[in-house]
Write a structure and sequence with these properties.
Blueprint (H helix, E strand, L loop, with lengths): L2 E6 L6 H12 L14 E6 L5 E4 L5 E4 L11 E4 L7 H4 L5 H7 L7 E4 L4 H6 L7 E2 L6 H7 L4 E2 L5 E3 L3 E4 L4 H14 L1 H11 L26 H8 L8 H7 L4 H12 L3 H19 L4 H7 L5 H12 L3 H9 L7
Helix pairs in contact: 1-6, 6-7, 8-9, 9-10, 11-12, 11-13, 11-14, 12-13
Length: 330
């Protein structure tokens, strides 16, 4: 059976965020010969009340055909952002309606929030002692309201196993694609991303979207250097090598790079190498030593250290997870 995703539409829901789960999970299809074209997820939208209209933050309402009992069938619950959270936002507590709806959720259900949907998870206690994120503009308020949560305002999303949170708006797409990748591997996630016309993975975090003084339009960007580096990942790459691609000093290049991407060149290079290693581990039979060299880490030890730091798993463990039974997992 397809993995069951139930999206909880609250009053004041943002239509864009509400549609993300249906677009990403609903368009995830099997690509292996035995399940080619089969739906991998079954997506249902429900309300905290009996079936009927739910107000959005736009000038229209939506007709929701399922009540809160649908949450009892969920393998994954997705909570999109809402601008009408009431005491959830102001006091950090669930309304009686929400508490009754959450009582339907089975233990072990994967919980996912998009943007300020994280307030609902926090108010329900799912985020106590855990790392989480939300829209950067709400991060300070979120942390003050829920001091037991370890808020990280810089990332696009956080995967903490059975509870996942995302930053604002389009970061929900990044998170849902990540979940598809985690459930069914890179090839399926990339297929969905291509058909949705979005990148399968975005670089950097929220820092690149926070309003800052606009850089001088006369200054060159760092796109050429990034494209050059992606073609050289197997080789040692020095900061001055990247700066030379843009005819900049190292200091100017580093500043411009951080303004554009949101992280340092060294952090970006590590991310790209981790991503290359993941692709090789999933799609080839290369040895761990060969993967380490082709991804630019040089040695298996370095590869293990970086993969462990980024994903919390060893190269062998990652390959076992994504090569063995991806088509069988929900």
């Amino acid at each position: 059976m397809p993995h069951r995703v139930v999206v909880l539409a609250l009053d004041g829901v943002l239509p864009f965020e509400l549609g993300i789960a249906q677009r990403i999970f609903g368009r995830s299809l099997g690509i292996e010969p035995r399940d080619r074209g089969a739906k991998l997820y079954d997506v249902t939208t429900c309300s905290v009340r009996p079936p009927g209209p739910v107000a959005t933050d736009a000038d229209f309402t939506i007709a929701v055909e399922h009540g809160p009992e649908a949450l009892a069938t969920a393998d994954t619950v997705v909570i999109p952002a809402s601008y009408e959270l009431g005491p959830v936002y102001s006091e950090g507590r669930l309304t009686d309606e929400l508490a009754a709806a959450f009582a339907y959720i089975r233990p072990g259900t994967r919980m996912v929030s998009i943007c300020t949907g994280g307030y609902v998870l926090a108010a329900a206690g799912y985020l106590d002692g855990r790392p989480a994120t939300t829209h950067w503009s709400s991060a300070e308020h979120f942390q003050a309201l829920f001091p037991a949560v370890r808020v990280d305002p810089d990332v696009l999303f956080i995967d903490d196993g059975d509870v996942l949170t995302s930053a604002g708006v389009a970061a929900g797409i990044d998170l849902c694609l990540h979940i598809v990748r985690r459930d069914h591997g890179t090839a399926v996630a990339n297929d969905v991303a291509r058909r949705t016309v979005v990148p399968p993975h975005r670089d950097g975090g929220q820092a690149q979207y926070i309003q800052r003084p606009v850089p001088d339009a006369q200054l060159a960007g760092t796109t050429t250097a990034r494209a050059w580096a992606l073609g050289q990942l197997e080789r040692p790459i020095l900061l001055r090598d990247m700066a030379q691609q843009e005819s900049m000093s190292v200091r100017t290049f580093t500043r411009r790079f951080r303004e554009e991407v949101g992280i340092s060149p060294v952090q970006w290079l590590t991310q790209q190498r981790v991503e290359r290693a993941r692709q090789l581990l999933e799609s080839t039979d290369l040895s761990i030593d060969q993967v380490a060299r082709k991804a630019g880490f040089g040695t298996p030890t370095s590869l293990r250290q970086h993969l462990q730091a980024a994903l919390g798993v060893s190269p062998t463990g990652y390959r076992r997870t994504f090569r063995a039974t991806a088509g069988d997992r929900c």
